[in-house]
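Re: your question from the hallway

Yes, I did run it. Sequences:
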Amino acid sequence: MARIKFASDFDKSVLLNNFENRCWIQVGPEDDWNFYWAGVHNIRNVFSVESGFRLQDDQVINHFPNHVELTRKDLMVKNIKRYRKDLEKEGSPTAEKDELGRFVHLDFIPQTFMLPADYNLFVEEFRKNPNTTWIMKPCGKARGIGIFLVNKLSQLKKWSRDGKGNSFTPPTAKETYVISKYIDNPLLIGGKKFDLRLYVLVTSFRPLKCYMYRLGFCRFCTVKYNASLNELDNMFVHLTNVSIQKQGEDYNAIHGGKWTTQNLRLFLESTRGKEVSDKLFDEINWQTVHSLKAVAGVVSNDRHCFECYGYDIIIDDNLKPWLIEVNASPSLSATTSSDRIMKYRLISDVINIVIPPGELPDVRWSKIPDKENYGHFDLLYDEELANLDLNNPDLRAKTGTMSSAMRGNPRDIRKGSQATWK
Amino acid sequence: MGSLEQQENVFVNLLCSLRPSTLFNELLCAAQEEVKKSNHRISELKTTVYSGLAAAGWDRKLRNVIYHFLQAQSKLSKQSAFSTTGTDLIKEPISYIMKAQLAWEKKILKSLNSMCTELTIPLARARTEKDRKDMATRWTELGVDGPDLSQIRPVYAPKDFLDVVINLNNPNCVSSGNAGTFDLPWGLIHVSLKVKTLNELRIQYSDMAITHCQTGTDDLSDIPPELFENDRTKLGKKVLAANHAPITREFSKKGCPISMRAELWCQILGVELTKVDYLYYEQLKGYVLQHDLLVDSLLYKDVKLTATNDDQYFVFEDFLYQVLLPFSRDTVVLKHFAYNSATPPKSYIRGKLGMEDYAVTYPPNGVIPFHGFAMYVAPLCYLYNDIVQLYHVFRHMYMHYFFRLHSVSSHPQGIVALSLLFETLLQAEEPELFYHLKQVNCQPLKIAFKWLMRAFSGFLSSDQVLLLWDRILAFDSLEILPVLAVAIFSFRKTNLLKVQSMNTAEAVLADLFTLQVVPLLQLSLFSK
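Structure:
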């Protein structure tokens, strides 16, 4: 069998070690690669009409052409809002609302407005609850750049004065902001605030095929969380991004402020009980699937593509998870040795699901890998298999309207049918 | 007839200890309430009051108190079997061991004092009003701006203590000169104490046999819950509802389900918090705010050296200060010195050196921390989110078990006997391995000692430490620690047989975070 030729835009060791250990051959992005780990900036070139590129059947690449539908803050919010509206129109039970008009099952992103576009809507909402804190984020930036907190309208006015050099040009992605309700009751562990970074692999959007990585982690603030307003300026308190936390004095290079989800689970199950912790992790799976379904219709489902997303989730003290944002190219630099091991495994497991071991990439393949090849991934949802299940009336009775299509793993099926998976 | 007399004694003691307790008052009040209830016939008053109290759950409370009383009594009486008089004999009946402990205490105190002199800091000083206020506001985030610790060194580490244990020698014992026999063993411990054989341990730990399903192994996510987990959960709920310590112990022998562990442990240890316990903690906290002790810096330093750098425990750093600092002020801890071979160190008010009237226990709880002390608390942080509960559980664990891991004693649960048990078991089960390691100058105890001394905290993954400690509590014995240490050596035997130096042996055993303790224990206890 011919050896796989790979190209990479990164010289990160977790990537290159994986490729080398598989005895793959490195080629340039311009050459005939079989597997390309591209940076998001290059993905547009690969798929642009001008490039004249046509991907062959034995070529796969690590991004979908318009992943921004999910990974740009404003677009994700727009898509999820539209998705909910559509479901509501259909009269789907998942779009059920409570007496306050909030979605019972689909209320998983903090209330968010686009700025400047939704400025008036935002002001209206702000006046309703003047004592809430909001967080402003530029749409096109990552790693905590350009983020600030707002609790007075005057702060926003100042920002808009400073920002508007020329009011005639429409705002570009870089100048668009989203403003979201700040989760001011985060779950604290040891008195510290944290967020969750989970990895989600999508191998196809239509039908949707997605996997959740078991080795996600919590990122902790080095500074004690304090909801008081004079702390608003201390971004260390609020942001858990490692790249921000790294600048803090108390950053610890041994663990990097990272705590495994297994530890989180042990802590929650011990202190809060099994049922609520199971429910929390079920809800995280649920909202991940729905965030993906929300964009499944708009992402161009190129057969050559797969993508490994970094999901950022904040848990509040009622153990409700909130989806904050999705990253298209989660950091592959390792901050600690266990981080390096985890990320190496992540890439290895991604490759094993995307390319059946021992074979060349083949886009005509069914994209239903053997369960042995899941590694540390769990199948979250496979629409194709779910539909097969639905055609089987026995299974339909068991799993309800939305089958989670988790084959062979009785615990997952049990979990699925028990809680939110109705 | 002696046993009858003893029983009577125990009974009198029990009544004496019950009378001043709050439970006694509560019982009295409850009984009065019961009497007040109408339609009791005078002739049946006694029986109806009894049954009324029992129905309200008072008999279970009383039973628990008696159970914990008897447990505490057995600590005091086990060793007094040697002799009927003298507190020293309860503490430690063998004189050369007692001497070694005293010499060790002297050495610790000396190094503590010389640290004071070198750094020109007093053992204790009152905090200024400003310091006090500042510390009070930062109480829940003491880790952020701690004191300057650059000069502070841990007073001793497991390695130093191992030297003391190794150098114990029975002056009455004449060596026959035959290597490998009891008086000239392969191992490092040269004290003849009676330790259990594998067969005795098998009987003791029979609930862990491979034929019994265990929590933490047979309830993992890939095993259908109908096989074990469902029944186990159902039973666990019943046990929790019954709230009777001996039953809880029995149940926990097969491991505690994660979500029930916190409560099961409290039941076993008899931790049931009242308002008084919360007030008591506040009082201890007040003492911390009043005085700055050198021990505080030692505790700080220890947390910074261990838990703060540990990827499983760093999130609990601030909790650890909130437990350890008040612990050092807690004079209730002094009670355990009645059955601990150690004696709390004395310090004298300035200028009154040696005058007993001016002696104070230093630190107030009598415990000088060593490098790794904070790790006794760290795993408990996974179980208790409430500081006061965390505090009390830790104090009970310390006064029941952990103190034995760093005092020189002939007690069968003491570190000397545990080390010896480790060596004899390993020699009996894996003679080839022991011999090889001995030949290449890697005495196994040199590696295993720190595991034993810290009860494996910080060496295993957090969930596994908790599963191990389940067994300490359930079987009321620390002997599971050397059994696990032997199991680990057996498990890594193939690689250990290849090592030629201490460094490589240490490397083979450096990472234990992937180990599953229950199957390992089963393997080493029951597979041969």
